[in-house]
Amino acid sequence: MIRALLAATAALALSAPALADTLIDNVDGLTIDDTGGVTRFTGLVIGSDGRVAQVLKRGDARPARIDYKLDGQGQVMVPGMIDSHGHVMSLGFSALTLDLSETKSLAEALAKIGDYARANPDRPWILGRGWNQELWPEKRFPTAAELDAVVGDRPVWLERVDGHAGWANGRALDAAGITALTKAPAGGSIERLAGGKPAGVLVDNAMELVSKVVPAPRPEDRDLALAKAQQILLARGVTAIADMGTTIEDWQAFRRAGDNGTLNVRIMAYAMGTDNMVLIGGPGPSPWLYDDKLRLNGVKLYSDGALGSRGASLKAPYADAATKGLRVTGDTQLKNMMSRAALDKFQVAVHAIGDEANASALTAIEDMTATYTGDRRWRIEHAQVVDPADIPRFAKAGVIASMQPVHQTSDRLMAEARLGPNRLSGAYAWHSLAESGAKLAFGSDVPVELADPWAGLAAAISRTGPDGEPVGGWQPQERVSRELALTAYTAGGAYAGFAEGRFGRLVKGERADFLLVDRDPMLASPSQLRATQVMQVWVGGKLVHQAK
């Protein structure tokens, strides 16, 4: 019945003229109200401009004249999901290259790499990502020699799942000129064997030594990757995403898609550093383009690395290693780049994972607010490990906590090992941040995690993983309500990207971005939420995806 309905409504929608008023009636609709609560409705009128013209409740009179009427047959309608932190082009390229994210051992990863190399004999480099040594029994970084044993005829470069470390074989190290004499750049490290020979893994800023010699993708490669990324995002119900680390080449791909009418996912772009910021935006943030499909909002900066590769900067040494992590960008340089961006009213988003990095980013923002007044909406990306004493500083400085719930469920055991039992109270502290008055925006960090807002919602309300563990939730005091979680994936994401009033809620005047799904997120259990099926996706009042 539902599939027949979907086929019929899709045919109607796709055959409708571009300028037509549409009534989608008989739905179990929910959206976010002005207070962050959930409001119910039963019908939606979409104007010829692709905006919501009316939100109808049970008993409200339906329009007498309408061009198209679709019967939702009681399906659940929710606003389109907004992923507030992802990497669009990396998602597309990850789907088109070698994916090691499911490997459970070093041997399995090596076998997959060897199979991929044999299946692609004409590729000059073997590229991919997704490995995570914490999921392997070995619990250690892999080596170049191990890669050489399966692919020795050409360079191999494979990024860790978090994008903060890379694994190279001997050919790749040679291509980059990396030897025992090579010094790691500031904010990076080169793993070494006894005697100083590079072991094969490079962390954070040291990754650039190899990545700069990897052949750059062609424009047509980027267009294909963008198309693939959009396909994946829409299938999960993501209608808008904050792209964290946009390059000028990425921006050009976004513009080409916008120009030829194939840009269906709304992209709020944050340039990769101040150089790309100036190349893309010039004197300031771009205007909204393509009916609110694209805008350069600001710049993405880095304070530290990642917890998994021990690059997150901590106030005290790691519990499982004699290091405090890495500061990718020092305090003075970070403040200079923030000031350069704020001077021209670019929004600043700072990656900070460790408690020291978060404290330093907060201090920098506090210093900036005296000079750069107005509605700045400073963002800290991830805010994974925060000293409880620093949590109130977010709200006081007007800092948006852009967080990824699935990181908590994926990282739980690793975080316990890295931090020890006495530093977990400020880890992935969604509830504490919200209670302090900070605004939350939720995302996935795709392709580090799947671009799956339903898994994120489940994690946010339960603090349990797909296996239901741990029973009762990990640090369960940090669970959030369903309403807050849904807000953080919709209206909160729009606010974080200066898009409120344009999209993010199903209210009169905003873009009609919505989903028809097979269950009510306000009623489904965490396991049911993870199994949510997205039946249809509409962006700007147009059907852009439907389940097969």
Description:
With 548 residues, the chain is α/β, with parallel strands linked by helices. The chain contains 18 helices and 22 strands. The strands form 3 sheets. Strands 1, 2, 3, 4, 5, 20, 21 and 22 form an 8-stranded mixed beta sheet that branches. It has an 8-stranded parallel beta sheet with strand order 6-13-14-15-16-17-18-19. Strands 7-8-9-10-12-11 form a 6-stranded mixed beta sheet, sandwiched between helices. Helix 12 (391-396) links the parallel strand 17 and strand 18.
Helical run tally: 18
Work out the helicity level.
25-40%
Principal-axes geometry comes out as: globular
Number of strands: 22
Calculate the terminal CA-CA distance, rounded to whole Å.
13 Å
* Rg computed from alpha carbons, rounded to a whole number of angstroms: 23 Å
Note poorly predicted spans: 1-19
Tell me, rounded to a whole number, the average pLDDT.
94
Summarize this structure briefly.
The protein has 548 residues and is α/β, with parallel strands linked by helices. 32% of the residues lie in helices and 23% in strands. The strands form 3 sheets. Strands 1, 2, 3, 4, 5, 20, 21 and 22 form an 8-stranded mixed beta sheet that branches. An 8-stranded parallel beta sheet has the order 6-13-14-15-16-17-18-19.
Overview features:
548 residues; alpha/beta; single chain; globular; 8-stranded parallel sheet
Question: Can you lay out the helices and strands and say which pair or pack?
Answer:
Layout: H1 2-15, E1 22-32, E2 38-46, E3 52-56, E4 68-71, E5 76-79, E6 81-86, H2 88-96, E7 98-99, H3 106-119, E8 126-131, H4 144-148, E9 156-160, E10 165-168, H5 170-175, E11 188-192, E12 198-204, H6 208-211, H7 219-235, E13 238-246, H8 248-259, E14 266-272, H9 273-281, E15 294-302, H10 331-343, E16 347-352, H11 355-369, E17 379-382, H12 391-396, E18 400-403, H13 405-419, H14 430-435, E19 440-442, H15 453-462, H16 482-488, H17 491-496, E20 514-517, H18 526-530, E21 534-539, E22 542-546
Parallel strand pairs: 1-4, 1-5, 6-13, 7-8, 8-9, 13-14, 14-15, 15-16, 16-17, 17-18, 18-19
Antiparallel strand pairs: 1-2, 2-3, 5-20, 9-10, 10-12, 11-12, 20-21, 21-22
Helix pairs in contact: 2-7, 7-8, 10-11, 13-15
